[in-house]
Each structure stands twice: as C-alpha cells, then as structure tokens.
Amino acid sequence: MKSLLLLVLISICWADHLSDNYTLDHDRVIHLQAENGPRLLVEAEQAKVFSHRGGNVTLPCKFYRDPTAFGSGIHKIRIKWTKLTSDYLKEVDVFVSMGYHKKTYGGYQGRVFLKGGSDNDASLVITDLTLEDYGRYKCEVIEGLEDDTAVVALDLQGVVFPYFPRLGRYNLNFHEAQQACLDQDAVIASFDQLYDAWRGG
C-alpha cells in the first residue's frame, strides 16, 4: 500500500512540474519577421538625366538596407551597372564593384567610377560622354541573397536634325539617314528625342 501511495504522489508531483513548464512555454512571446518584406531597396532619384557629348554625368542610385534583418551587414555589398539594349533582351556590362575590387568593361574603361558620396550611394559617374553612351542603365545592388534594381535613362542634349537641300527633305530612307548622321559624327534621333523636340516646339 505504501508503494502505491508513493507512486501516486510521484505522479502528481511530475504532472505539476510538467504543467508549470507548459505554462511558462505557453506564455513566452515569440517575434516573427515577415518573410516577404523588402530587406534591400534600390532607388534612382531621377528616372532620366541629361548631358552633352564630351561632358560628364552622374547616374543616380542609392540603396537602403534593413539593419534588423537576419544576416544584414555580414555580406559584402556588390554593385553592378549594365546598359540595357533598346529591345531589353540583352545587358552590356559597364561596371562592377565589391568592396575594394572594381572592374570596368569595354569602351567604359577609364571613364566610369562610383560617386561614393555616402555609404549607401551606388551612383555611377561617366566622363567624356560619347554618342554611344545614350540609353538606359540598370543599377543592381546585391547583398547575400537579397538584391534589387533601378533603371536610369541617359539622354544627350544638342542633337542636330540635318537638312539636306540637295537631296530634298524626305529623299532618304532609314539606313541612308542613319549613314548621313554618322558621316556628320551624329546619331539619328530616337522616338523619345523626336517627341521631346516636338513637345518643346
């Protein structure tokens, strides 16, 4: 009988002990971070910038990180600038930076660098602008598994619309007009440039 009584008493004490632990665990507050919230945001202050041939331009790009996000600050920031082709099917590498490592590509070598005005500044400076520099550029910032992008358009001012009195105003097809522009060290106007010129009178 004593054995049975001792066994019942041990069971009650054990149940009380488990019940206390359950209450402690049940009352514990657990903070969950939203999985879909942005932890890295990239923005361009201006969607379009203007400059002229031979000049310098800064393509604006800044990034913002969530310092409370898991893993924030442990990965090096990688900044990559590419130029988008007119059909958006291809990207041409312009500049890549990761810590102290920097690399420029193609005709941009020696002409591009990061502005670096602040820790979160990914703006790209292009010097000695050429006619081929006109177009849209993508700024991509990568930190670990997080990344985001912004697009900036570069438009060159001072485009000349040549008039050919010997040939008549409308006697050139597209390829002839393109070649005539190249012969004068110019480029044929894009739709956006023509629209801006029309809108400006």
TrEMBL record:
The keyword Disulfide bond appears for this protein: yes
GO molecular function per UniProt: hyaluronic acid binding
PROSITE patterns: IG_LIKE, LINK_2
One biological process term in Gene Ontology: cell adhesion
Domain Link as annotated: residue spans: 159-201
Record protein name field: Hyaluronan and proteoglycan link protein 1
UniProt domain Ig-like: residue ranges: 38-152
Pfam families in the cross-refs: V-set, Xlink
Function: Stabilizes the aggregates of proteoglycan monomers with hyaluronic acid in the extracellular cartilage matrix.
Keywords: Disulfide bond, Extracellular matrix, Glycoprotein, Hyaluronic acid, Immunoglobulin domain, Repeat, Secreted, Signal
Primary location group: secreted
Family: Belongs to the HAPLN family.
Subcellular location: Secreted, Extracellular space, Extracellular matrix
SUPFAM superfamilies: C-type lectin-like, Immunoglobulin
Signal sequence region: 1-15
Stored InterPro entries: C-type_lectin-like/link_sf (IPR016186), CTDL_fold (IPR016187), Hyaluronan_bind_Proteoglycan (IPR050691), Ig-like_dom (IPR007110), Ig-like_dom_sf (IPR036179), Ig-like_fold (IPR013783), Ig_sub (IPR003599), Ig_V-set (IPR013106)
